[in-house]
Every structure is written in C-alpha cells, then in structure tokens.
Amino acid sequence: MDLDPDHLVLALEQFHVDREDRAVKEQLLGGPRTKKKSNFESAEQKAERDKRKQKMFWEKLTTVLSPQKLSVWKALDSALTKYYAMLVTRQNLIEDTGMLNQQNEELKTLLNQYLQAGVNQELQVPPTQVIRLDI
Length: 135
What we know:
With 135 residues, the chain is an all-alpha fold. Helices cover 75% and strands 0% of the residues. Among the domains are: 14-31 and 46-64, no CATH class; 66-117. It has helices spanning 5-29, 43-61, 67-115, 119-122, 127-130.
C-alpha cells in the first residue's frame, strides 16, 4: 500500500494535537490515567498543581481561534474601527452644519430687521431699492 506523504504528515499532526488535548483534559479533570493522589498533599504541592492547571487553561485559550479565523477577526476589527471613525466625523459635520444653518437664520433675521428700520426710509436711496432680497 502506497502512502501519500502529505496525508501522512497531516494525520500525524492531527494525532499529536489530539493526544496533547487528551493529556491536558485528563490533567485538568483528573481522568482515568492519573494515579491516585496521596491524601497528604502539602500546601506547596497543591499550589504548584493549581498553578499548572491555570497555566494549561490559559495556554489552551490561546488556541481557540485558528490563524485564519484570527486574521478575519483582525481585518474585521480594523474595518470597523475605520467605519466608527468615519461615523464620528460624519456626526461632527452634521452638528457643524446644524449650527451654521442656525447662524444663517439668525443673520437673515437681523438683516431683515435692519432693512425694515425706519432710518432707511429717511435716506435718499434706501437700501431696499438697491439690494435684491431672496429671504
């Protein structure tokens, strides 16, 4: 029987990963392969065992995402960060536009008041005859 080297390498890698996972689970959960522990475990031994369990737990969490999925999440994070920055900029521009529109309305009202003032009628050429108003 001829074995394809590519398949053999993949199978061996998977076997190794599965074996490590089983060993970690057995150590964390106290599986059937573990020897019976002495009831007279010192506090130092217990602390060391707890420290190893925590270390294995956190090491296991670092491999939750595959490298491909991790790169997808990084790209998504980058794109969403840019999108958020764009939305904040857009919000600031909308607020600025609202303030400018309000100022424009106030200026129109003031101009209208100045043009309708009685002083303008006393002039030889009132401003209302020279200025075309589109208010």
